[in-house]
Structures are given as structure tokens and as C-alpha cells.
Amino acid sequence: MIIIYIISLLILIAIPCSLYFEKLGDFFSKIKKLFIKLTDKIKQKQEKEKQYRKRLYEDEINNLKNQICELEKEHKKEIEELLLKTNVEKQHLIKLLEKNDKYCQEIIKNKKSNESEKDIEINDLKQEIEILKKVKNDSNQEKNYWEKGKRFKCRDGEKVRSKSERDIDDFLYLNRIWHIYESEYQHPLSKQLSRPDFYLPDYNLYIEYFGMKTPEYLKKREEKIKMYNSDDSINFEYLTYEDDKVIYEKLKKICIKYSIPMKK
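Given the sequence above, the corresponding C-alpha cells read:
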């Protein structure tokens, strides 16, 4: 009995639900149709607007073309007259140029001649400038070469190449002996150039310090000593790395030899 009751109840509930869902399906189908209609109307409206804009654009283009044609008709005579006048003036100018061609050619010829003379002068000046630049560059390179390696500062502010040269410079400075570091020297006969380490102008004395003992250096040392000694117009003395420990005594002996006063 209970089962029959339950089945009857379900049947009673299912009948109205099926009717409800059927009506709901009809409602959604109507909404779908309405949406399709609206979409079609929007497309039709957009197409109409597109066609309308196209017609407006074409009308505007045609209007402009008509205006251009009217302007051409109105000013056709003026344009023709202007072109005719231009041609007349052009022919007149050509005749003037032909008439004065000889005079123009002479002016051009004279101008070219003057320009060629100026070019020669300019080229000469350029060559002189290049020579001066080369001399200046060579001088700067030589200066940089000699300045390179001066790492030891003396009491008088001079920079020298070794500690022993610094000791010599300090000795001369403290004894108030005027000296020049690496002044240029040229042999009067061989014209050989050199830069002695120290030159004492008041006593015409050159002092060299030889601080190395390689075979090549020793060979150059002997050549320098021979060169200085062959010049009777100067006084020359030299010190070596062997004198480092007694360098002040050696310098004092040189001062005594050439009667150079020292501070007590």
C-alpha cells in the first residue's frame, strides 16, 4: 500500500513539472528568436549607415572634381598667357647669354687662373703647416721620451732616474751649486748629440753617472767617455755604480779639483 501511495504521489508531482519545463522551453525559444531578430536589425542598420557614408564620400569627391574643372576653365587663359610670357622671357635670356658668352668665358678663365694661383699658395702653406706639425710632434715625442722614467724627486723639485742621481742633485743643491739636469750637448766636430746627467754652467763641467753594468751599456759608456774627453772645450767627470757608497766623497773631490766652493 505504501509503495502504491508513493508512486501515485510521484505521478501527481511529475505531471505539473513536465508542464512547467515545457513552458520554460517555449519561453527560451521565444527569447532566442527575439535575439536573432535584433541582431539582424542591427546588421541591417550598420549596412545602411555604411552605404550612406559611401554615397556621401562619392558625392563629396564628385563635387571637388567639378570645382577643379570649373577652376581650370576659369583660369585656362591666364595659365596660357603666363606660360607664353615665361617662354618669351626665357628666349630673351638665352639671347643675352649668347651675346655675352665671350665676356663670360673670359671672366671664367681669369677666375680659374686666380684660383689656380691661390691653390698653389694654399698648398705651399699646407706643406709648411705639415712640416711645423711634424717638428712639433717630434719635439713632443723627444720630450716625452726623456721625461719617461723620472721617478725620484730631489730636494729642489727636480725628478731624476735613479737614487744615485738624486744624491748627486741633492749634494749640488745643498751646496748652492748651479746645475742643469740632462741638458743637451753636441760634440763640436762629430756633431753627435747627447744629454749628460748634470751640467754646471759656471764651471763648464759635465758630470755623467753610469749606473748599469751590462755588456751593451758598458760599451756605450766607453763611447761616451771617449766622446767627452775628445772635446777640449769642456770639463768632464763621471761616476759609476761602484761609487754609490762613497758618492759624496767623490763629489767633494770633484769640487776641490775645479775649485767649486762648498758650504761648510
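The chain has a mean pLDDT of 77. Try to locate this feature in the C-alpha cell string yourself.
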